[in-house]
């Protein structure tokens, strides 16, 4: 994929099946920002391809690059991605709308407060906000007309339907308001989205498993339940002190921050790389006694400063995956919701939490694993399948993987 922001020559390594073919881009100067003095890239764009690194920051200032502009340029340079970038127009609008409903939800006049009074298919309390955000995102995506199947993956909505749109090529999986149990306390929440390619138009019951599915449903589900390695894009929106949107199209991670004064997401972090080393872990420690022995031992070492790095770690846990992963990406750390003796597969859903967030983490240079296998390589067997997850800084997550391997 080509990026041409500023007079950008982005020659990016394509390391996974998710990514699109990398090509060099010529200088287009489509966004007029100041060039740094002569660089290797300017002299010889191809020279950069050897380093296999995006060259965003070195070549130009990215101040004022909006998400819209970013996607326009991606589409212009990669016409085959035009439909995908259209979906991001819908996600942009939906995240702005969801920012507003989340922000206003605690006002006494708000109708979004409180529980819906219903319990969803997984026995969880459903909030009005879950339903509202689900509708916002579903409608925004549907009206792009780009989805073959729009798989509503929310954990907290009973609105788990499959929406069929005619003749288009993508399927979107999402959790519209992850961490919604926190929202009444003003704690960060987020939206998680994964986009796969999909060739069929079909109707399926998301709850059908194995023999319960008709042949057609089984075929359609098989097309929909794809491993994370098939993701063509993933994104999250974080509703916190600022609203952030982080995206990947299989070519690095780009973070945008909502500037409410102009109503635009503006590029704030280009080509995010999670620090390889860290001293933060982020897990629900109330479950410590029930974790597997290898994980317990590693975390114990981190607490005591006797782990591989010799550093004494500190703990940060919001209980809202998007917030915890966002901090992990920026500061380094290990976020996890591991399996335990009570819930062997932990709590997070593979299809619409684990896989998209793993795609983002890997694209930022981190690792995401169950402890024993790469989350991205697991094919979901059913829509709401759970999966143990540890993700974050390469060296610290590797310490956990080594401990499991030595078990
Ligand atoms: P809710 O959406 O029900 O608030 O759950 C949030 C979540 O799925 C994920 O965002 C958190 O990391 C995790 O659950 C927190 O779970 P615990 O409350 O068990 O720590």
Features:
407 residues; alpha+beta; Fructose-1,6-Bisphosphatase, Chain A, domain 1; D-Maltodextrin-Binding Protein, domain 2; 2 domains; 8-stranded mixed beta sheet; 5-stranded mixed beta sheet; 11 helices; 30% helix; 19% strand; binds 1,6-di-O-phosphono-alpha-D-fructofuranose
How would you summarize what this structure contains?
Residues 274-403 form the Fructose-1-6-bisphosphatase class 1 C-terminal domain. By secondary structure, the protein is of the alpha+beta class.
Describe the structure.
This protein is of the alpha+beta class. It has two domains: 67-111 and 126-271, Fructose-1,6-Bisphosphatase, subunit A, domain 1 (Fructose-1,6-Bisphosphatase, Chain A, domain 1, 2-Layer Sandwich); 280-406, D-Maltodextrin-Binding Protein, domain 2 (3-Layer(aba) Sandwich), CATH 3.40.190.80. It contains eleven helices and 15 strands. It has helices at 40-43, 47-51, 56-59, 67-77, 82-104, 128-142, 215-224, 293-304, 321-331, 350-363, 394-405; strands at 115-119, 125-127, 147-152, 162-164, 170-178, 189-197, 231-239, 243-248, 253-259, 264-269, 280-282, 314-315, 334-337, 367-369, 389-392. An eight-stranded mixed β-sheet has the order 4-3-5-6-7-8-9-10, sandwiched between helices. Strands 12-11-13-15-14 form a five-stranded mixed β-sheet, sandwiched between helices. A two-stranded antiparallel ribbon has the order 1-2. The longest helix is centred in the first third of the chain and has 23 residues, at 82-104. The two termini are 41 Å apart. Residues 7-59 and 152-167 have low confidence and may be disordered. The chain binds 1,6-di-O-phosphono-alpha-D-fructofuranose (AFP). 1,6-di-O-phosphono-alpha-D-fructofuranose binds next to loops.
């Amino acid at each position: 994929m080509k990026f041409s922001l500023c007079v950008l020559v982005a020659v990016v390594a394509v390391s996974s099946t998710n990514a699109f073919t990398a090509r060099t881009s010529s200088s287009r100067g489509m966004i007029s920002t100041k060039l740094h003095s002569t660089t290797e890239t300017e002299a010889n764009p191809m020279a950069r391809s050897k380093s296999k690194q995006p060259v965003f920051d070195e070549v130009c200032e990215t101040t004022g690059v909006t998400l819209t502009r970013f996607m326009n340029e991606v589409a212009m340079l990669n016409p085959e991605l035009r439909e995908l970038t259209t979906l991001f127009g819908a996600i942009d609008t939906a995240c702005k709308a969801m920012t507003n409903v989340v922000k206003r939800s605690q006002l006494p006049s708000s109708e979004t407060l409180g529980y819906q009074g219903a319990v969803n298919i997984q026995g969880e309390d459903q909030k009005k906000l879950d339903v509202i955000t689900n509708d916002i995102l579903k409608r925004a995506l549907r009206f792009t007309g780009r989805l073959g199947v729009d798989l509503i993956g929310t954990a907290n909505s009973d609105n788990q339907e499959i929406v069929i749109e005619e003749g288009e090529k993508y399927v979107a999986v999402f959790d519209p308001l992850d961490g919604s149990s926190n929202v009444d306390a003003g704690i960060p929440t987020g939206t998680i989205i994964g986009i796969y390619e999909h060739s069929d138009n079909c109707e399926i019951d998301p709850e059908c498993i194995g023999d319960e599915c008709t042949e057609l449903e089984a075929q359609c589900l098989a097309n929909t339940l794809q491993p994370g390695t098939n993701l063509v894009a993933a994104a999250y929106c974080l509703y916190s002190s600022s609203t952030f949107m982080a995206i990947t199209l299989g070519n690095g991670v780009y973070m945008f921050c909502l500037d409410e004064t102009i109503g635009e997401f503006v590029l704030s972090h280009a080509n995010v790389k999670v620090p390889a080393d860290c001293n933060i872990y982020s897990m629900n420690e109330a479950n410590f006694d029930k974790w597997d022995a290898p994980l317990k031992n590693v975390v114990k070492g981190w607490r005591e400063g006797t782990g591989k790095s010799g550093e004494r770690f500190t703990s940060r846990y919001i209980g809202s995956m998007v917030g915890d992963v966002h901090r992990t990406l920026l500061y380094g750390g290990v976020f996890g919701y591991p399996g335990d003796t009570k819930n062997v597969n932990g709590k997070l859903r593979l299809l619409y939490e684990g896989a998209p967030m793993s795609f983002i983490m890997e694209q930022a240079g981190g690792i995401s694993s169950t402890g024993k296998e790469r989350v991205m390589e697991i094919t979901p067997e059913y829509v709401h399948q759970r999966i143990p997850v540890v993700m974050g800084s390469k060296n610290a997550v590797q310490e956990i993987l080594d401990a499991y391997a030595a078990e």
